[in-house]
Write a structure and sequence with these properties.
The protein has one helix at residues 6-30, and strands at 50-61, 78-87, 92-97, 100-102, 108-110, 112-122, 130-142, 151-162, 166-177, 188-200, 203-215, 226-237, 240-249, 257-266. By secondary structure, the protein is mainly β. The chain has a single domain (6-266), classed as Beta Barrel (Porin), CATH 2.40.160. Strands 1-2-3-6-7-8-9-10-11-12-13-14 form a 12-stranded antiparallel beta barrel. The termini are far apart. The relative contact order is 0.17.
């Protein structure tokens, strides 16, 4: 008697389903914010002021397989991104990033470059605090180690409130792939939130949360979205100015653990 074909068809269906799920997860990971994990608040360079920030992050536990040919998986890699900033006016500054990554095998990759322009027309009073709002435009030309689409852009809106002992920041972020073959579907959307409370002058504890839903017009199911919650420490006691955080992934599509730090080094 010949075997019934039903089991093989069922197995083939399960295999196709598993491959589709894996592709969706890899696609979600490819949208991860890896070179700069930061919520923009009311910080802006003063006219004529120059500075540099060093963004560093690593993933002790997370995705270890490439999402596309040339991708550097986050697992055990270390990302280094110096950011140079220049103050133009009281409401406007600009800067550029030079992302790079040391992969899990010890190979160093230069990632390309990003140019940004920040505008902050509403700023809080330096002593009493208050509301702030603005935006940041970013244009990127990145290599395969960081992005499957060589050209991309980001519009980050900036909202929040600063008080003498606490700070809230909200960044709705819209990202577009600009290279041919990657433009369909509209922008990807990420909501980034930060809340901090001073425990001593110049030292604040709090949290940051990053929620990437995929395409704004067609959000991914929650299990395929990237959701990371960070416990963070901000120190602003010159000459020591830095932010450190430990992040926990909240969905199956998110790297389980991420460590991040931002060190500020004034050039003036």
């Amino acid at each position: 008697m010949s075997p019934a074909p039903q089991p093989s068809r069922r197995a083939a269906g399960l295999l196709r389903l598993a491959m589709s799920a894996a592709a969706a997860l890899l696609s979600a990971h490819a949208m991860a914010i890896s070179d700069e994990i930061q919520v923009y608040t009311d910080d802006i360079s003063k006219p004529g002021e120059k500075g540099v920030e060093l963004h560093v992050n690593t993933t002790p536990k997370g995705r270890s397989m490439p999402a596309y040919p040339g991708d550097v998986p986050p697992y055990h890699s270390i990302r280094f991104t110096p950011e140079f900033s220049f103050g133009a006016t009281r409401e406007f500054d600009w800067g550029f990033y030079l992302p790079s990554v040391l992969d899990a095998n010890g190979n160093f990759h230069v990632g390309g470059g990003k140019l940004r322009f920040k505008w902050l027309p509403l700023q809080p009073d330096e002593a009493a605090g208050g509301w702030y709002a603005g935006g940041n435009l970013e244009i990127s030309r990145l290599k395969k180690a960081f992005s499957e689409s060589p050209w991309s852009s980001e519009v980050r809106t900036i909202f929040g409130y600063r008080a003498p002992e606490w700070l809230i920041g909200i960044n709705p972020i819209f990202e577009w792939n600009l290279s041919p073959g990657f433009r369909a579907g509209g922008p990807d959307f990420t909501l980034a939130i930060k809340a901090m409370h001073d425990v001593r002058p110049g030292i604040a504890f709090g949290f940051e949360h990053y929620a990437g839903i995929g395409k704004l017009a067609h959000p991914l199911p929650r299990d395929e979205q990237e959701q990371t919650f960070y416990l963070t420490l901000d120190v602003d006691r010159k000459p020591w100015i830095f932010n450190v955080g430990i992040g926990r992934g909240l969905t199956p599509a998110t790297d389980r653990w991420t460590l991040k730090a931002i060190f500020e080094l004034p050039l003036n």
